[in-house]
Amino acid sequence: MAEPKGPPSSSKIEMKKYSFPVKPIQRLCWTEATADHLMTHEEPVVLTDTDLVQSALHWDLSYLEQNMGPAKHTVYVSKSRYFMYYDERKVNDFPSFKEPMKKREWTFSKFVDEYKSHEGRTDEYLYYQDALTDTVGSGIKHDFVHFNWHWVSERKKRYNWGQLTSNLLLISQPGNITPCHYDEQHNFFCQVRGLKRCLLFAPDQYDKLYPYPVAHPCDRQSQVDFDSPDFERFPKFKEIEGYECILSPGDVLYIPMYWWHTIETSPGELSISITFWYRGGPVPSKITYPLSSQQKVAITRNIEKMLHEALQDHNEVGPLLHMICDGRY
Ligand SMILES: O=C(O)C(=O)C[C@H](CCCc1ccccc1)C(=O)O
Ligand SMILES: [Zn+2]
Predict the structure, then answer these.
(1) 262 lines ligand 1 (CB under 6 A)
(2) Is the CB of 189 under 6 A from ligand 1?
């Protein structure tokens, strides 16, 4: 198979530069044995020639406006370029929590109007993030039906993944950043239009990324501000090591469950992406040791949830964990 055409070099599209070391995520035709090896070992890889969302590569704002139908969709509004996800169901337990972005429910036409009127503004930014559902118009339904479902269902079977839970449509203004977080599902992240730089960190970097407490609205998100890290609070962030890729239209990035990632839309143009999120497969009947770092992260989450449930007050979880560990482990 001919070497797939390379991605644009990051120097040409002036993405943010960080001081920590990053290695390139391998970019391979999906038929390559190495691609299969990486997927099997739950390691990230950029897959080319999948045609997974080939039928959506013609999407742009005007086509979507004509075809997304009359339903309302979720758009986030942020005062900065950062769009930190938070679970609004956990907000009332944290009265001092300041919502990092506002959630709006707009028709697609309203979104397009707002998108156009926000161009050039530096006080407010928009990020459309909504599941593709059957409320969309016939044009999108046609494109959706023509995703490469045969290919993706073959992958699901081969890697023994659980069910497809959702396809998220992401429409980002140039320069938007999703801060570093992990998800509890496998993800085929498909680039449809524009360029996105993805930084990924292995699950074993957990101790360097200092996630919020599980009970916190920003559960699964790193507390570290990558732009100006607080090394007093987060000293191990100095040792972080990551992986990088720049996605072009047609590229599919496999983001394995529990892998940390932060995504930046290139300053050049709007970005359209579609995610395919899959639940993890069944826990193996025979647990083998040593445990994987993903399994250890899952265990820490269960411990935090159990302690919060037992103590009721999330402010008591930290002190009890210190009582168990300090001076003893
Ligand atoms: O596909 C992924 O996993 C990403 O992180 C892509 C990211 C937006 C994700 C928004 C989001 C984060 C957490 C929960 C629900 C929605 C981007 O592309 O900016
Ligand atoms: Zn994510």
Answers:
(1) no
(2) yes
Nearest Cα residue to atom 18 of ligand 1: 263
Question: Does residue 10 sit within a domain?
Answer: no
Specify the number of domains making up the chain.
Answer: 2
Distances (CA, A) of 277 to 90, 161, 176, 183, 314: 22, 10, 21, 9, 30
Q: Which atom of ligand 1 is nearest to the CA of 261?
A: 5
Q: What is the CATH number for 90? A: 2.60.120.10
Q: What ipTM was estimated for this complex?
A: 0.98
Residue whose pair of structure tokens reads 């359209």 in the numeric block: 272
Q: Give residue 64's identity as a one-letter amino acid code.
A: L
Pocket perturbation via mutation, ligand 1, pick of 78, 168, 182 by most ligand atoms within 8 A of CB: 168
Alpha-carbon gap, residue 325 to 39, rounded angstroms: 36
* Best CA proximity match to 15, nearest among 122, 161, 202, 175: 175
| CB of 253 sitting under 6 A from ligand 1 | no
Q: What atom in ligand 1 is closest to the CA of residue 189?
A: 1
Check pocket membership of 200 for ligand 1, CB cut-off 6 A: no
Q: How confident is the prediction along the chain (329 residues), in pLDDT tens digits per residue? A: 455 666 666 545 689 999 999 999 999 999 999 999 999 999 999 999 999 999 999 999 999 999 999 999 999 999 999 999 999 999 999 999 999 999 999 999 999 999 999 999 999 999 999 999 999 999 999 999 999 999 999 999 999 999 999 999 999 999 999 999 999 999 999 999 999 999 999 999 999 999 999 999 999 999 999 999 999 999 999 999 999 999 999 999 999 999 999 999 999 899 999 999 999 999 889 999 999 999 999 999 999 999 999 999 999 999 999 999 999 99
| 151 & 269 share domain | yes
